[in-house]
Design brief:
Layout: E1 8-13, H1 20-29, E2 33-37, H2 43-60, E3 65-69, E4 84-87, E5 92-96, E6 106-108, H3 112-117, E7 123-126, E8 131-139, E9 142-149, E10 151-154, E11 159-160, H4 173-185, E12 189-192, H5 198-208, E13 213-218, H6 227-233, E14 236-240, H7 241-247, H8 253-267, E15 271-274, H9 289-300, E16 305-308, H10 310-313, H11 318-333, H12 336-344, H13 353-367, E17 372-376, H14 381-388, E18 395-399, H15 402-407, E19 414-418, H16 425-438, E20 447-453, E21 462-469
Parallel strand pairs: 1-2, 1-16, 2-3, 3-12, 5-6, 12-13, 13-14, 14-15, 15-16, 17-18, 17-20, 18-19
Antiparallel strand pairs: 4-10, 5-9, 7-8, 7-11, 8-9, 20-21
Length: about 475
């Protein structure tokens, strides 16, 4: 099941993709990692999906990554006596903590944290930004507003507060239950929603305690103020453009996307571009040309992975959506201009021994036209350093840990393989050559460049470079 491309595909599972046969087709079509969305479905349903994926992993003998995406805080208005109201431009409207059903003049906003952060002149966005109100006067338990953009508002619609840092943990009671469930199950990645500041990632890392990797979702513009710190603390980052596009103007989202991708690439952390990538394929068998260009742009930018959400979770054509994304990625990566872009965007190695070795491996591989770069790493750090280089040949990531192999399924250009614990470097060279041949990355007479850290099992100790012939 070798993929003839570098960027990876994440497919979200849901009602449209929940059976073993269909999930198998998604994997065959190109899905490298599967996302379980904790916002929907029960623990029993997610457990069933988890077992199906692990069964596919054994069947295809390929490590498959699994992401548990936590819901995060959901800020919503209360209920209306009539179920809904119509807000008109320039009318006054009040939010408060009263549990009385709302009407055309007021409604409950059961979040004291929002009132604590509000100031006169701030905006409140309702129903995914469709309705906009400006705060005129506010206190610790109320806010008087003026409607800027009106519309129909019904029970429990979402609320956003652009420009405000809310005194909220990204982990709710539900999230903590889902997190413990996912960690016991054995998910590889935990996607953290509602990240506002570096402290949110630190808190999550303490709870997870190394049992899974942390994927920080950047969906609030305020998080961008701490972008480099969040990237440094997280194991990977997701550009969650749907929520990001609610609080940020539409024209800012492409700029923010490029900024986030650039920061992650500089740090050598995997970065995922997500939301509405092939949105029309929820119902249509083909994407729009604009959507194809959107996916292509993420690939030209060097994103590690692109994600399908509703397209595979509830869409009418889940397999076709993965197939199309696979086609777009392969087409872009076969474009000579793509390599020109990758070379132009090449990052200078960091001032460490390990990065110097990896940079030399990339240069050596290009000089001798090696068939592949082979890394040996128990934690995946060596392999991620190789992925940061964006070389012109595939990366064969060997690791003795199945958890590492599954996490590396998210990384650009990496074909991860679990191998036995090796004691000697010569043994590792033999294993690297054999696997490169077996996995069809090299043929007899080809050369591969091999990197590792000795002694084995020491994180970040990449200190050996070897060129070997495939016999």
């Amino acid at each position: 099941m070798r993929r003839h491309r570098n960027a990876k595909i994440i497919a979200t599972l849901g009602p449209a993709a929940c059976g073993e046969a269909l999930i198998g087709k998604l994997f065959e079509a190109g899905a490298d990692v599967f996302r379980l969305n904790a916002s929907h479905g029960t623990h029993a349903e997610h457990k069933k999906l988890f077992r199906i994926i692990r069964g596919l992993e054994k069947h295809y003998n390929r490590p498959i990554g699994i992401i548990l995406d936590l819901q995060g805080p959901k800020l919503r208005v209360g209920e209306f006596a009539a179920g809904k109201i119509l807000l008109k431009a320039r009318q006054s409207f009040r939010f408060d903590l009263s549990e009385q059903p709302g009407d055309s003049r007021r409604v409950q906003l059961p979040h004291a944290e929002i009132f604590a952060a509000l100031k006169a002149g701030m905006n409140l966005l309702l129903d995914d930004g469709r309705i906009r109100l400006r705060v005129v006067h506010c206190g610790k338990d109320f806010a008087e507003t003026k409607v800027v953009n009106g519309g129909e508002l019904s029970d429990h619609k979402g609320v956003c507060v652009p420009g405000a840092v809310l005194d909220l943990s990204p982990l709710t009671g539900k999230d903590l239950e889902d997190l413990e469930f996912g960690l016991k199950l054995g998910v590889d990645w935990v996607a953290l929603s509602f990240v506002q500041r570096p402290e949110d990632v630190i808190a999550a890392r303490k709870l997870i305690s190394g049992r899974a990797a942390v994927l920080a979702k950047l969906e609030k513009p305020l998080a961008i103020e701490h972008l480099d710190e969040i990237v440094e603390l997280a194991d990977a980052v997701m550009v969650a453009r749907g929520d990001l596009g609610v609080e940020a103007p539409p024209e800012d989202v492409p700029v923010l996307q490029k900024r986030i991708v650039n920061s992650c690439r500089e740090a050598g952390k995997p970065v995922v571009v997500a939301t509405q990538m092939l949105d029309s394929m929820i119902h249509a068998p083909m994407p729009t040309r604009a959507e194809a260009s959107d996916v292509a742009t993420a690939i030209y930018d060097g994103a590690d992975a692109v994600m399908l959400s509703a397209e595979t979770a509830v869409g009418d054509h889940p397999v076709a959506a993965v197939t199309m994304m696979n086609k777009i990625i392969k087409r872009v990566e076969s474009d000579p201009y793509y390599r020109t872009v990758m070379e132009a965007q090449h990052r200078h190695p960091k001032a460490t021994d390990a990065d110097a070795i990896i940079a030399a491996a990339r240069q050596a591989a290009h000089t001798i036209s090696a068939a592949a770069i082979v890394t040996f790493s128990s934690t995946g750090s060596t392999t991620l350093r190789a992925a940061r280089e964006r070389p012109g040949m595939p990366i064969l990531g060997l690791t003795p840990r199945i958890g590492t192999a599954r996490r590396l399924a998210l990384a650009w250009g990496v074909h991860s393989v679990k191998v036995p614990n090796l004691k000697r470097f010569a043994e590792m060279v033999d294993k690297a050559v054999d696997i490169a041949l077996r996995e069809e990355f090299a043929a007899t007479g080809d050369q591969v460049v091999i990197t590792a850290g000795v002694p084995f099992g020491t994180p970040g100790a990449t200190n050996i470079l070897r060129i070997a012939w495939v016999k």
